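Structure (tokenized):
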């Protein structure tokens, strides 16, 4: 396993970044872009996941990093829930929902795996 020297080296952060990029692109078109509340909330949740991984990496303790990873993981779950809102509101179709949901599952899994790995070392 390669040594992680910067938060940008963390695979979970890279996937959270990709999820965030996708969410921004998705929420920048059509009726979704005009639903300011939903658009802003889903963007904040995606950014939160990414930011909490980075912030946690710079903590002084492994325990604190684990706490930030928990917050990041819950932010991804928030994105998942808000994707359902977008689907139910007719802002996205089922195929679009599924493709974005897959990215959230991948991101959440990587965050969870990192969190679990760190917890075992506490």
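Design, position by position:
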């Amino acid at each position: 396993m390669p040594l992680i020297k910067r938060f940008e080296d963390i695979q979970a952060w890279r996937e959270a970044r990709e999820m965030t990029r996708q969410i921004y692109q998705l929420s920048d078109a059509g009726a979704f872009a005009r639903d300011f509340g939903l658009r802003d909330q889903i963007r904040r949740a995606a950014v939160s996941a990414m930011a909490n991984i980075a912030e946690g990496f710079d903590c002084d303790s492994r325990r604190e990093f684990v706490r930030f990873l928990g917050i990041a993981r819950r932010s991804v779950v928030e994105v998942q829930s808000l994707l359902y809102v977008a689907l139910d509101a007719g802002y996205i179709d089922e195929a679009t929902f599924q493709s974005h949901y897959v990215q959230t599952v991948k991101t959440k899994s990587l965050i969870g795996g990192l969190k679990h790995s760190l917890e075992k070392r506490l």
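Reviewer-requested clarification: The chain has one domain: 11-120. Residues 62-88 form the longest helix (27 residues).
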